[in-house]
Amino acid sequence: MFRTTQRGLSLVELLVALSIASFLALAATQLVVDTKISFLFQRAQADNQANAQFTLQWLDRQLARTGFKRRPDQPLQAAFPALSEAQSGVAGCVFTAGQVIKALTRKALCIRYQPSDRLEVDCLGNGRPANASSLAQPYAEPVEAYIEKLAVNNNQQLLCTSKGGSATLTEGILDLRFDYGVGVYGHPDPTTYTASPASDAPIRSVRYAALLSTPAPARTTTRDSPAWQYWHESALPSSTKGQLYQVIKGTTALRNLLP
């Protein structure tokens, strides 16, 4: 009778097999991690770019409305009388006669303008029922102008406040800066930019810049963000080095205020 000898794996062979399997598992895990990091990075970039485009377009559109009046021959002082905060219905928005833009802080301002027709609404999507009859007639002065406050709050939200409430337009804006192009009466071009113009200064344009950020770290790095350094002129806190930052800039001419 013949005996069949069965031989299993030796200890060395088993260790080699386990080493190869461990290496393959680590490689697969690293591939999954790298893919996830790349996905988060690209999504964060896309979110930043979308927020940047929306912010630029929205600020440009709202600022361009500043000082619009339905009667071109009507003086600003007559079209836009002095208003107290209670009359404007928006906190901080106090205007002298003829003033249609007011700097509140470096990242907040108030504007006012007349609606061009019955279909035009404010930044909250609301009209003014009191204007219905007057806006049905060409060049008729509306009963009530639109007053809006544009600002960034401490929660990194771009807000618009008008009569009836406030709405968040976009998020992820760490900071916002307004500068006002002031000229001289009778000339359309600004001669200087300032963050605090006088109430009677002839403002010709508004220059704005915003620092945007992703809500959570999108990469692992020890390097400072060039956008952060450009904005703050200082090093980035280590806890937020993985976030993506972007700086956007724009300038809007206040064509309704040009001579």
Choose one word for the global shape. elongated
Sheet with the most strands, sense and barrel status: 5 strands, antiparallel
Low-confidence stretches: none
Overall mean confidence score, pLDDT: 87
Structural class: alpha+beta
Give the number of helices. 5
The radius of gyration over CA amounts to 29 Å
Question: What's the count of strands?
Answer: 9
Helix content: 25-40%
User: Percent of residues in beta strands?
Assistant: 15-25%
The arrangement of helices and strands along the chain is HHHEEHEEEEEEHE
Going across the biggest sheet, name each strand in turn: 1-2-3-4-5
Instruction: Report, as a whole number of angstroms, the end-to-end distance.
Output: 117 Å
InterPro entries: N_methyl_site (IPR012902), PilW (IPR032092)
Protein name: Type IV pilus assembly protein PilW
GO biological process, one term: type IV pilus assembly
Structure description:
This protein is of the alpha+beta class and 259 residues long. 28% of the residues lie in helices and 25% in strands. Strands 1-2-3-4-5 form a five-stranded antiparallel sheet, covered by helices on one side. It is elongated. This is Type IV pilus assembly protein PilW. It holds the Pfam family PilW.
Task: Label this structure with key terms.
single chain, 259 residues, alpha+beta, 5-stranded antiparallel beta sheet, 4-stranded antiparallel beta sheet, 5 helices, N_methyl_site, PilW, Type IV pilus assembly protein PilW
